[in-house]
């Protein structure tokens, strides 16, 4: 698969300017020589494998892929991928990646971050990257805890969660990362889960193709400090009742599949216009929501993000929003191109500035 | 009418923020420049928010010093003050030399205006200006009359008062006038009536001088003997911006400025943002941490990452600069120092970030530190900072300050083609010395100790770097104690070993006292030294541009003197560093008022000290 | 008016624990001796006057009111109010105020900030204060420009705005502060305008009464660097067509008032469930939105925030959301109270820790 | 069976992270403490993420040093190593003294495990341990047998191996055992089977020693002659937390800790979070800047604001600390130093933030700096830091480090009632000296130069403070040059004038060489000095706890010696500060490996140096 300059429906691909590799690649090409050092059972392993399996499909030259991470267990990720990479400092990866992406249109730039890294110390850089729509793919590993520092609560932890830093329960209300991203004008927002390899690979591919910032929240199990936080979504039976998978152009449904091959529950607008999960038979068929991630108005995507609850009684996954709007780095570069066309650079002219005068030899005394 | 030749004059214009003082000062300066005088300027803005009209807080001023010899400072005490209202008089009159000339518009001295300025009695009549030469010129009324033919409203018409003053001063100092009218018409090309009003006011001013008998004397300041060449006037911030641009040009690296606005550094951004036609990008980031992060990210991609800020911003950038130290990537950090601590005196100057620049990071994280010594030197220092950053793969700190940033002086245009190119020397293939065929990002150049640098997009050299301690050569994560020790010492050795030019000493008379400064104090120190020498005193002078590492001959130089006087606009930060090198006999002279040293004040201090020595 | 311990509908007031002043107060009591130094015509003046007029109505003891600001023109505000105050550093006021509010339940704590201060450098503290629901009233003076540093574009400036730092136009897409706040779980979000004294006073009062974080965005004119940015909303005729004023329990309408005393345009759900502004006669009366700021689900408030456009062709003002949820500082203090009840503090016991042993005189050799 | 009396022993337990080494070490330590030995401990965790089982990276260890005299370090070289798997052996065996004892479980030395540990040959058989006393004890198998009656699964049963080892070592060193069983039952009260398994394994270990003939000798270490009193074991982080709590108690101020987790400081938060029943609140903020901001905000409200962090976090807090300097509010900033720069070696120790603490802020912004010298001294230093912060209204920096934070030692419980109270002395009424009846927040105490402090809620004293320069006394915004100069110098004078106890020197033999340290190097330096003295060498010792201002007698003390040796875990930061005071004859001895000094290594260095002196 070659993706250079794919312009689908007038939309430039996120990879449009990145050179492609004529040679076929395999997952193993993306394995670095570093020993992987997460705890046994950590969800990060599956995500790593999924990414390693997905990257070859992009067909990019490996040297033109860069992973930038912050600090956290998840942020060790770049070490294990045989691409260029930087394990930076806590919370700052989106800012660092912004500089890189702006300077180098020929790179596919990925950010790896955790719920603490992205949403606690790094919250500002995250929302600004999304607002500006820098061409970055941001994978947020949400294990709802600070793993690396041994288990304090994070901005996505449940209120009341008991940790070493909250022995009688966290007093903080959590963020919903998808809602936050939508409030910050994100052009692409998706959610997936470590255990859902297929779903994850799908949103990662979509993110890669998206031009602009793409935020992918990934529910990730931390068996050591927040064991089983997402178990309810992993049990096949529970998952059926709880997980909503968004698919563009399709009705949003869930629950055990009925005879018609569709979920027995649907997401529909209630009479006040708000979203609700109903048994299919109770829903007026016109009120059933058909998913449109390309909707310019993020309000429906936002409403969908609120269907997901912190207690996971309902979890919405897939691509919430994917709309086309100018990418910051493209804009900045376009300004430069235009400037160059209008005024070819002359260092001498700029140095002279405009108002100069000459002191001739004879004026020397 | 007498015409008196003088060697220098210091003029200060002062008025309300809205009175166009900066434009006036600017034009007057350009005339002096075009005439061939040497010059230096000092604008002074009011506190950051526009204060109510007519109050002392709202006063804006511009001082120009021009002379027939090379000069070094904007001048200690003005010879002439043009005060556009009572508040401007009040805020500035005490700075004048005795016998100085004051020009005021008497119509402005109404009860109301006097009260706003906080005058209880009218200074024009209460005798308090007795020691000065006072001229009352109805600048407003005459301007109104002059522009009447245009039919401009009163308020707009009065806006041209500044050009009246320009005309009058031009006459007094025999400045060339043709350029002015041309320039005014160009500046206001889109507003022809305004242009015309300005021209008419300017002529009225000139004619006022020529016609009335108010001024018995006019003065002439001959052109200065500057080295031949093409000149422009340049402020420190502009020169710094141009230096960064030039560094990109001669290194063929894209310059990426990541920055967040802050006084007095913002103008560097403003200047560079205008040059997007070069291989240059500016990113106005969400904060200082993002700004330096973006710069470092760009550097990782092979660009010349630059970030500009002032003290509070430098504090915020500390952690990321540490990452630059560990990843050994080029990065230029410009700190335009201002009065501190905290928000402090944001529009004033100070040199109190030197120790922060040297030590304001956790762990052992040395970085080179440079400081320009005059507005135009900001250009050379910026090029030098970039050269060191790229050659040694290291963050470099450049310490400018408010006085340099906003001050200006004539600048002989550099010949870009003659500048030595900067070579990033990107790695293109494997370099492991063990025939593994691997790429080792931390293999070092034997001479510079710079690490190998492969940028993304280079096939086969894929690798990861980061903030954890690195293994020597391979750059892999290493927790090995011996490796850490070696890396800490290597990073230090790399910085210590940076090639820095020897310190020049100006010591024609084999003096026993050396005055050693750094940064923007160059002008006043040099001026003070000249005065002392004219007074027959032997005093040596040297000025540090490299504050880390110091020039190799520094210890030697210093040891040759009985005492080394170190004037600084802080509590003695360079003095501390010198003493820390084991140097004794350091006399620290400090001033922390938010204002530059005056030459006269330094002259006195040095004189006293030397008398002490002699005694 | 005394507001101590007003518990309306089971909701504790934002001022519940702040001592009230038995003496009547007047605006002049809140004027400090500092000369006000904004530019002539700056919108900050009107906001200052409005606040000075509103504070006496709260009936609080003046010494128990604190204003904390960041840096910016707007952040000079505390100097002009004769209460306790801190003019802190750029972007950090919400963090500093959080510490104060947590430590001192008997204070009414206000934050004054600008679009740069709150949304650029201070973005992270803002969203976290909102998420935690700290009992702070945050007034965001949005003039869509950096005033104090002389006119660079801000995170709320129009894309393409020409400033000294963007001579060919800003490449940044702006935030919508109300959307951002809602995405960050804000329990109270409102918007008003400098020129709308009455509307502003109203939302300020509501904010003061709200327990938890209250964000009030105030459109503020900066005649020097962004002159007339909000003029379209100030012209009475234009304002009628553009400004939607939200009122709890009322239909959301705008436009010239019809014969029935109601606006001729209404906000209604379109068939896909999204909000739209329609002529009243075109709207199915059931689809007309009745404003419910107390709706637990922020989706409708979010949708309303999207009706406001950056170009001000439509501007929604009033209280978007005001819901009751635990305030962080109350939670933290309640934990402490509970802890004290369960284990009265004994410094000696804590110091001893549990495992102690005694070295007696005789064991000394 | 021989019973040998010895004066000290160093035991190290090592195994996989999951093997319970910290619990084992802890229990063994408590037994020694209960027995009355003096002791010091050093835990060592693997790199921050749990590595795959059985690898060298995943090894966790705990070292205990106990003795019949007072001891100062956790010991240079272990006498005994209990290694639970090949990786643990590999990672630790080189540290043992020659002839030391190694206890291993031979069943763990399978091909697979050896390979995981990176052993090519079996060390138990290849002769590489010849210089040691090797004991093979089938700890796993015996434990399994012992707990069999409980019916526990194999995997769970094996978890009790650590208690088997505890039993065995308890027997070897004749430790009291009754407490152990009781403690285990209490710890696992909710899991009675686990409790029973642990007890059975513990007994099995004891019995194994008693019954088999593997160990020919057992040892006895007599109780130490510690001052009488009630003791507990305390780590540096715990002591620091308790010190902060106590400072709140004796000042009657609410303690508000604003912090963001970071290794190795997080445990201070964890400890304080458990004491919400005191007048104390903990805020886990969104980042370090918010954390220090919240602390400062709380201080503004009259609380004792505290923030805890490590180097990278301190860098981020710089700007806000500057605001604390300008607003002159109390604030305690704790930096538990770790290996740097950047992320560096996060789990290792270092002393390289001293200069950041002193100078890492823009402008002239002095703050007091203190450093505790042992784990228990963290308590006193925390109280002292709070006392200075409140008394002088200033941010105070407390520099702990990784070695102090995680190390532990016996601590004689302080008598809280005997501590001098701390008095915030809040203002309660107007104080203007001009009969205006105004309140002047910057009116200063003549002696301490501390400003007046009125907190919100105090009627009539409403005022505003902030980051802009303040007018003397009134605290109004002031751009006046002379005022700025005065305020800069006053802030400096306030810090310089802080009352600091004189430096004590221990110099029984009128030595010519002084060893001067600061912070956690106290233990190894003192131990080295003792050894030198036992070897008949005269050497003086002093240790700085106050690093800004220095004790008033410092210059005096130092001038009495021919040379002052300054050992530091950095590149010579204290040495730099001393030289900057004009002190010569400073010999800087540095080590930057992430590990504490060993007494033996310092002994050698000092010996060499003194021979040099003698020569
Ligand atoms: C400036 C700074 N502050 C704090 C830390 C300590 N720290 C490292 S990672 C982390 C949180 C990690 O949580 P998260 O981002 O959720 O990642 P996870 O480990 O859970 O994958 C913290 C607090 C640091 N390294 N640097
Ligand atoms: C750390 C830091 N960075 C930058 C600045 C410079 N600065 C002061 S205010 C400001 C922006 C002000 O904009 P805004 O918050 O919108 O306030 P306004 O002046 O428009 O009211 C900036 C960039 C500073 N004082 N401190
Ligand atoms: S602590 Fe949790 S997140 Fe970190 S590596 Fe272990 S399991 Fe994974
Ligand atoms: S610059 Fe703008 S915001 Fe600032 S005081 Fe002036 S008018 Fe107001
Ligand atoms: Mg996490
Ligand atoms: Mg603004």
Which labels suit this protein?
A: 365 residues, alpha/beta, 8-stranded mixed sheet, 3-stranded antiparallel sheet, globular, disordered N terminus, B: 615 residues, Rossmann fold, 4 domains, 7-stranded mixed sheet, 6-stranded mixed sheet, binds thiamine diphosphate, binds iron/sulfur cluster
Overview of the structural elements:
The complex is a heterotetramer, with two copies of chain A (365 residues) and two copies of chain B (615 residues). Helix content of chain A is 29%, strand content 19%. With 365 residues, chain A is an alpha/beta fold. Chain A has an eight-stranded mixed beta sheet with strand order 4-3-5-6-8-7-13-9, sandwiched between helices. Chain A has a three-stranded antiparallel beta sheet with strand order 10-11-12. A two-stranded antiparallel sheet of chain A has the order 1-2. The termini of chain A are far apart. Residues 1-10 of chain A have low confidence and may be disordered. By secondary structure, chain B is an alpha/beta fold. Chain B has four domains: 2-221, Pyruvate-ferredoxin oxidoreductase, PFOR, domain III (Pyruvate-ferredoxin Oxidoreductase, domain 3); 232-418, Rossmann fold; 427-483, no CATH class; 505-610, 3-Layer(aba) Sandwich (Rossmann fold). Chain B contains 20 helices and 22 strands. In chain B, the strands form five sheets. Chain B has a seven-stranded mixed beta sheet with strand order 11-10-12-13-15-14-20, sandwiched between helices. In chain B, helix 2 packs parallel to helix 3 (111-117). The longest helix of chain B has 20 residues, at 192-211. Chain B is globular. The mean pLDDT of chain B is 93. Chains in contact: A-B, A-C, A-D, B-C, B-D, C-D. At the B-C interface, helix 10 of B face loops of C. Strand 4 (84-87) of chain A pairs parallel with strand 17 of chain B, so a sheet runs across the interface. One iron/sulfur cluster binds at residues 38-39, 42, 44, 73, 143, 147, 222-225 of chain A.
């Amino acid at each position: 698969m070659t993706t250079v300059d794919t312009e689908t429906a007038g939309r430039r691909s996120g990879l449009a300017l990145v050179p492609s590799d004529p040679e076929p690649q395999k997952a193993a090409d993306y394995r670095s020589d570093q020993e992987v050092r997460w705890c046994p059972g950590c969800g990060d392993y599956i995500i790593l494998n999924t990414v390693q399996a997905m990257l070859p499909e992009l067909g990019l030259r490996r040297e033109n892929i860069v992973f930038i991470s912050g600090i956290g267990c998840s942020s060790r990720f770049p070490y294990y991928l045989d691409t260029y990479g930087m394990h930076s400092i806590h919370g700052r990866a989106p800012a660092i990646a912004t500089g890189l992406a702006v300077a180098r249109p020929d790179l596919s730039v990925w950010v790896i971050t955790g719920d603490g890294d992205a949403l606690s110390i790094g919250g500002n850089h995250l929302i600004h990257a999304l607002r500006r729509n820098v061409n970055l793919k941001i994978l947020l590993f949400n294990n709802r805890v600070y793993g690396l520092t041994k288990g304090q609560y994070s901005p996505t932890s449940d209120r009341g969660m008991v940790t070493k830093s909250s022995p009688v329960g966290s007093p903080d209300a959590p963020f919903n990362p998808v809602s936050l991203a939508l409030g910050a004008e994100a052009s692409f927002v998706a959610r997936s889960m470590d255990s859902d390899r297929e779903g994850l690979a799908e949103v990662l591919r979509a993110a890669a193709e998206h031009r602009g910032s793409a935020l992918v929240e990934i529910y990730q199990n931390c068996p050591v400090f927040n064991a089983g936080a997402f178990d309810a979504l992993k049990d096949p039976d529970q998952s059926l009742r709880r997980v909503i998978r968004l698919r563009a152009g399709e009705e949003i449904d869930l629950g055990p599949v009925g005879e018609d091959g569709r979920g027995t529950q649907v997401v529909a607008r209630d009479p006040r216009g708000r979203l609700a999960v109903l048994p299919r038979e109770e829903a007026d068929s016109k009120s059933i929501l058909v998913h449109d991630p390309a909707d310019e108005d993020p309000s429906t995507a936002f409403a969908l993000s609120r269907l997901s609850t912190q207690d996971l009684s309902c979890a919405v996954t897939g691509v919430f929003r994917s709309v086309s709007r100018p990418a910051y780095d493209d804009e900045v570069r376009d300004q430069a191109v235009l400037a160059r066309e209008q005024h070819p650079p002359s260092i001498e002219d700029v140095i002279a500035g405009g108002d100069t005068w000459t002191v001739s030899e004879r004026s020397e005394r | 009418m007498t015409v008196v030749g003088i060697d220098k004059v210091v003029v200060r214009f002062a008025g309300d923020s809205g009175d166009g003082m900066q434009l006036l000062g600017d034009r007057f300066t350009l005339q002096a420049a075009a005439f061939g005088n040497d010059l230096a300027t000092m604008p002074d803005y009011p506190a950051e928010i526009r204060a109510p009209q007519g109050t002392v807080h709202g006063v804006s001023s511009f001082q120009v010093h021009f002379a027939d010899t090379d000069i070094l400072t904007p001048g200690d005490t003005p010879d002439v003050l043009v005060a556009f209202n009572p508040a401007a008089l009040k805020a500035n009159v005490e700075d004048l030399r005795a016998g100085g000339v004051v020009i005021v518009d008497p119509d402005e001295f109404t009860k109301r205006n006097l009260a706003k300025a906080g005058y209880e009695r009218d200074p024009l009549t209460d005798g308090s200006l007795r020691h000065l030469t006072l001229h009352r010129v109805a600048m407003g009324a005459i301007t109104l009359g002059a522009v009447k033919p245009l039919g401009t409203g009163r308020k707009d018409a009065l806006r041209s008062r500044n050009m009246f003053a320009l005309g009058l001063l031009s006459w007094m100092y025999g400045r060339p006038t043709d350029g002015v009218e041309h320039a005014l018409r160009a500046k206001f090309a889109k507003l022809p009536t305004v242009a015309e009003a300005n021209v008419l006011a300017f002529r009225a001013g000139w004619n006022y001088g020529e016609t009335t008998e108010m001024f018995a004397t006019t003065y002439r300041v001959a052109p200065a003997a500057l080295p031949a060449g093409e000149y422009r006037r340049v402020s420190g911030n502009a020169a710094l911006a141009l230096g960064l641009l030039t560094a990109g040009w001669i290194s063929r690296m894209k310059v990426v400025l990541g920055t967040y606005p802050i006084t007095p550094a913002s103008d560097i951004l403003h200047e560079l943002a205008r040059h997007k036609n070069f291989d240059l990008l500016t990113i106005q980031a969400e904060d200082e941490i993002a700004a330096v992060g973006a710069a470092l990210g760009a550097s990782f991609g092979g660009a010349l990452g630059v970030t500009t800020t002032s003290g509070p911003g430098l504090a915020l950038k500390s952690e990321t600069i540490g990452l630059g130290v560990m990843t050994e990537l080029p990065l230029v950090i410009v700190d335009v120092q201002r009065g501190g601590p905290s928000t402090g005196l944001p529009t004033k100057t100070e040199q109190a970030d030197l120790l922060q620049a040297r030590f304001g990071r956790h762990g052992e994280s040395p970085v080179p530190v440079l400081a320009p010594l005059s507005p135009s030197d900001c250009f050379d220092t910026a090029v030098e900072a970039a050269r060191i950053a790229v050659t040694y793969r290291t963050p470099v700190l450049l310490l400018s300050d408010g006085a340099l940033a906003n001050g200006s002086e004539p600048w002989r245009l550099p010949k870009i083609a003659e500048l030595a190119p900067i070579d990033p020397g990107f790695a293109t293939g494997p370099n492991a010395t063990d025939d593994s065929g691997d790429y080792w990002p931390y293999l070092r150049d034997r001479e510079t100790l710079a690490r190998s640098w492969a940028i993304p997009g280079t096939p086969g050299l894929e690798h990861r770097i980061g903030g954890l301690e690195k293994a020597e050569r391979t750059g892999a994560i290493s927790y090995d104690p011996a490796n850490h020790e070696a890396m800490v010492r290597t990073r230090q050795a790399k910085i210590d070993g940076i090639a820095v030019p020897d310190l020049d000493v100006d010591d024609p008379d084999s003096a026993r006292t050396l005055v050693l400064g750094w940064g923007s104090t160059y002008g006043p120190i040099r001026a003070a030294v000249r005065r002392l020498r004219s007074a027959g005193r032997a005093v040596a002078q040297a000025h540090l541009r490299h504050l880390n590492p110091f020039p190799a001959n520094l210890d030697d130089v210093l040891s040759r003197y009985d005492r080394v006087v170190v004037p600084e606009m802080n509590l003695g930060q360079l003095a501390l560093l010198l003493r820390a090198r084991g140097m004794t006999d350091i006399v620290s002279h400090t001033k922390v008022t938010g204002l530059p040293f005056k030459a006269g004040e330094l002259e006195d201090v040095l004189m006293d000290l030397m008398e002490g020595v002699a005694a």
